[in-house]
Amino acid sequence: MQGPTGYARLRLQIDAWAPSADAASNLSNLIKARMDGYRGVMGSGANAVQVHGVFIADQREDYDDTVQLHRNSRDYFVHHVEL
Fold first, then answer.
1. CA distance 24 to 54
2. Which of 6, 39, 67, 74 has its CA 20 to 30 A from that of 81?
3. Angle, CA 74 vertex, CA 37 and CA 8 arms, to 5°
4. For residues 34-63, average pLDDT
């Protein structure tokens, strides 16, 4: 209440593309295993950010006829401190 805290929340979308729905889902699950619940430093040097938590927000599945690939898309909220 006495000024900015530096706390920020961003929404990050990560798309996993693959020739089959199962492969797209498996890739998306690997990403989720690394991202969901993460706490710590992301980046390095001047681009480093202290992350307080990453949480999954939403997910979607799709197929693109043009490129003939399946997509598994997940949104994450990243809570961090702005430096």
1. 21
2. 74
3. 55
4. 93
